[in-house]
Write a structure and sequence with these properties.
Order of helices and strands: HH
Structural class: mainly alpha
Low-confidence stretches: none
Strand content: under 5%
Radius of gyration: 26 Å
Number of strands: 0
Helix content: over 70%
Shape: rod-shaped
Mean pLDDT: 82
């Protein structure tokens, strides 16, 4: 350990390290999308595109 922290880690230092590591690994794990999330996004985009096409067709019929 560094001279500022003493020679043996205290319980508070260990807790801080545990929280820090949990946050780092938690954030890294959340950034990756799984196959279900990717499929859901594709379905959402397809539904949105279909809705846009329907609105365009509706507008062309009313003009």
């Amino acid at each position: 350990m560094s001279p500022l922290l003493g020679s043996a880690p205290t319980a508070l230092q260990r807790l801080f390290l545990l929280i820090l590591l949990s946050a780092v690994f938690g954030i890294a794990g959340c950034e990756q999308q799984g196959p279900a999330e990717e499929a859901g996004q594709k379905i959402d985009q397809t539904a949105e595109d279909a809705g846009d096409k329907m609105n365009e067709a509706k507008q062309s019929l009313t003009d």
